[in-house]
Amino acid sequence: MYDDLTSDEFRGFDEAERLMSHYCARARVHARLDQTDFLADGAVAAVHVENTSRADRVFLSAFDRSGRLLRGDTAYIDDPSQRFDVTPEFDHDFAGMAVPEESELAEAIAREDGWVVSMNAVREYDPFEDRRTTQRAVFLAHLGDMMNDGRARGFVLGRLGDSESPS
After folding, report:
1. Does residue 28 carry a pLDDT above 60?
2. Which residues contact residue 15 at a Cβ distance below 8 angstroms, ignoring those fewer than 6 apart?
3. What is the C-alpha separation between 108 and 61, in angstroms, rounded?
4. If 0-12 CB within 10 Å is exposed, 13-18 middle and 19+ buried, where does residue 120 land?
5. FRET pair for 55, CA 20 to 30 Å: which of 113, 118, 146, 147?
6. Which of 124, 99, 83 is closest to 46 using CA atoms?
7. pLDDT at residue number 47
């Protein structure tokens, strides 16, 4: 049925795939950090994720607001669903996190052997809301493709009230 279609006819697919990939990375990082005590500990301001030396594990180092090393942990990677991909939304640069000069955290960043998570960004993250927002964005990315190939001719955005029914 779709054998004669070119890849340009489904441009929304690539966008939807990108949106889902980013969502999965955010959800995975949040879930993995939730398995440590770093997320619940308000003294932890940043976590350095050293993900370059071993494929089967990631070394985590927790830092306080002054950039002092608090403690470390190891997260094992038994399958690809446990990776600690760089997620811009949680990255210290993207989140605008201050890094004290000449601190242990600044030294860890200078080594360039991983990335630094802003724990404020992770703590503010709402996995449920992110899932809902991503679902809407994926649908909208596919909508153009569905309208182009005739699977959708119109749509209504919003919520139906109790007394309303779809026509």
Report:
1. yes
2. 141
3. 9
4. middle
5. 118
6. 99
7. 96
Which spans in the chain are helix H? 11-34, 92-95, 104-111, 119-124, 127-148
Name the residue among 153, 89, 90 with its Cα closest to residue 119: 90
pLDDT tens, residue by residue, 94-152: 888 999 999 999 999 998 888 999 999 999 999 999 889 888 888 877 776 666 666 55
User: CB-hemisphere CA count at 13 Å for 166?
Assistant: 6
Taking the CB of residue 37, how many other CB atoms lie within 10 A of it? 12
Amino acid 65 reads R
pLDDT of residue 5: 46
Question: Domain map of the chain by residue range?
Answer: 7-148
Amino acid at the residue 37: D
